[in-house]
Give the backbone structure.
Amino acid sequence: MFLALLLLAQQTPASELLAPFLVQDGEHALDVEDGNSAPFLHDLDGDGLRELVVGQFGAGRVRVYTNRGTRGAPRFAGFEYLRAGEAFASVPYG
């Protein structure tokens, strides 16, 4: 399933929302296995740039794509699964 995302700036009036666009992982469309993804943008590492956090149905894992671009022009390349200590974090599914 390819992921399309609507970027929302915090407290941005609806009249100023950006148009949806295809999110890319490097040079390719971001593809989340098993479908039912739940994308969310949040600054996880405190650098002022929002990372793309994507839940995936299979195994209940959560992918984190680090923003290597800017706030207005995010760029994602590769992901890591969210961890809880040494183990992969997971969310109940099924």
